[in-house]
Write a structure and sequence with these properties.
By secondary structure, the protein is α+β, with helices and mostly antiparallel strands. The chain contains two helices and eight strands, in the order E-E-E-E-E-H-E-H-E-E. The strands form two sheets. A six-stranded mixed β-sheet has the order 1-2-3-8-6-7, covered by helices on one side.
């Protein structure tokens, strides 16, 4: 089955030669999202909670463009520049993934993320998995 590029006007455009997401055979692979407000194209400044909220709203918009939802997410990878802020990030993350079977997750500390942001999240979803 051929791969299909997924984009959303409710999520930022990619800043390089990559797709916001690729769907193939019902699987959606969402590229790492950073806290860019798609309405302004500007990075969301502020604490880890504000940035995490924006990142997950971007992930959600891309999934919806693919015909999926956050309930369909089976795996995420969270990149943070400071793991001492894990609790604050996790509080916001938990609001987006509050169902009985949240996705598997890996969380890694990275020395630097694009444009000095504090968090980046990528996701893998299976369309219809959360039904």
């Amino acid at each position: 089955m051929p791969k299909k590029r997924i984009e959303s006007k409710q999520a930022p455009k990619p800043g390089g030669p990559y797709s916001p997401a690729i769907e193939v055979d019902g699987w959606v692979f969402v590229a790492g999202q950073v806290p860019i407000d798609p309405a302004t194209g500007q990075f969301v400044t502020g604490d880890i909670q504000a940035q995490t909220d924006r990142v997950l709203r971007n992930v959600q918009a891309i999934l919806e463009a693919a015909g999926a939802s956050l309930k369909d997410v089976v795996k995420t990878t969270v990149f943070m520049t400071d793991l001492t802020e894990f609790g604050a990030m996790n509080e916001v993350y938990g609001r987006f993934f509050s169902d009985a079977s949240p996705p598997a997750r890996a969380t890694l500390e990275a020395k630097n993320l694009p444009r000095g942001c504090k968090v980046e999240i990528e996701a893998v979803a299976r369309i219809g998995a959360g039904q």
